[in-house]
Specification:
The protein has 270 residues and is of the alpha/beta class. It has helices spanning 16-27, 39-46, 62-76, 100-129, 153-173, 210-217, 230-237, 239-242; strands spanning 7-11, 31-36, 53-56, 81-84, 136-140, 178-184, 249-252. The structure holds nicotinamide-adenine-dinucleotide.
């Protein structure tokens, strides 16, 4: 495998895209640890992967990130790649109709996970990463990191902010640590909303027209599954394949940035 002998920590690795990345990294020969706030998701996964280190905790807590890093280092002897991935959605909450106090708390809640969670994860992982000969960091972004309408203002701003984290960290940590991102498009996962918006139990899987919406928005006309995104994470974590790659984001969204105006794809008659 491409990641033989390497150690990765994946936040939000007990479901969806994070879980798919964990499974792919294990298949590529890596040893993996997970930090996830869902005891239920951890319990559902742990039995299938006995050597997987799973820590229950909240990415917005520095102490919980430190605990996860310590568990990864203790079990696997070091850390080569930190993957910030845990995130929550705003379910398109519109500024015009969301009450001001709700908007304020949704900002605090979503930025605490999607932005502060990535920053504190890096801070906690950095001492261990600097012990590695070829360390890397990969963040899960979104089409919402570049384009409107992939969420509401708060989610979109949080993913744009994570691009800023990548650029600044890629600069500050160079030349020792490579820092990059993967930006999935709409993907069939159990992604939850903010509890401040009343969406803690809302799942993308329950949005009936979500697959059709996703298919219509990308030129490749695909409905993305979590596993579809794992290749770019392997690439970016692999020193052999991405030695010169830092500060970039790989879009894994069926080509949303080349979507046509009148129709999504120009070659449907080919
Ligand atoms: P998911 O809900 O299936 O997985 C997210 C995991 O993160 C869950 O196991 C959850 O328990 C965990 N988590 C949530 N908040 C946490 C916290 N505070 N601390 C620790 N763990 C926490 O959802 P997913 O779609 O796989 O989301 C993963 C990432 O992908 C997120 O950053 C999301 O914004 C991004 N993303 C998703 C889509 C999509 O359409 N599903 C599209 C683009 C980007």
């Amino acid at each position: 495998g491409w990641l033989e002998g390497r150690v990765a920590l994946v936040t939000g690795g007990a479901s969806g895209i994070g879980r798919a990345v964990v499974e792919r990294f294990l298949a590529e020969g890596a040893r993996v640890a997970v930090l996830d706030s869902s005891g239920k998701n951890i319990a559902a996964m742990q039995g299938h992967f006995p050597d997987l280190v799973m820590v229950e905790g909240d990415v917005s807590s520095f102490e919980d990130n430190e605990r996860a890093v310590a568990a990864a280092v203790e079990a696997h002897g070091g850390l080569d790649t930190f993957i910030g991935n845990a995130g929550i959605f705003d379910y398109f909450a519109p500024v015009a109709t969301t009450p001001g106090a709700t908007l304020a708390s949704s900002f605090d809640e979503i930025f605490a996970v999607n932005v502060k969670g990535y920053l504190l994860g890096v801070k906690a992982a950095l001492p261990a990463l600097l012990e590695s000969t070829s360390p890397s960091i990969v963040f899960t972004l979104s089409n919402g990191a570049f384009l409107p309408a992939g969420g509401g203002t708060v989610y979109t701003a949080s993913k744009h902010a994570a691009v800023g984290l990548i650029r600044q960290l890629a600069y500050e940590l160079a030349p020792r640590v490579r820092v990059n991102g993967v930006a999935p498009g709409g993907t069939l996962t159990d992604l939850r909303g903010a509890s401040s918006l009343g969406h803690a139990e809302t799942s993308l899987l329950d949005v009936p027209d979500f697959p059709d919406l996703v298919r219509a928005t990308n030129p490749l006309g695909i409905v993305q599954q979590a596993a579809d995104h794992t290749g770019p994470y392997v690439l970016l974590a692999s020193p052999e394949n991405a030695a010169a790659v830092t500060g970039v984001v790989i879009n894994s969204d069926g080509g949303m940035q080349v979507r046509g105006l009148a129709q999504a794809a120009g070659g449907t008659d080919l």
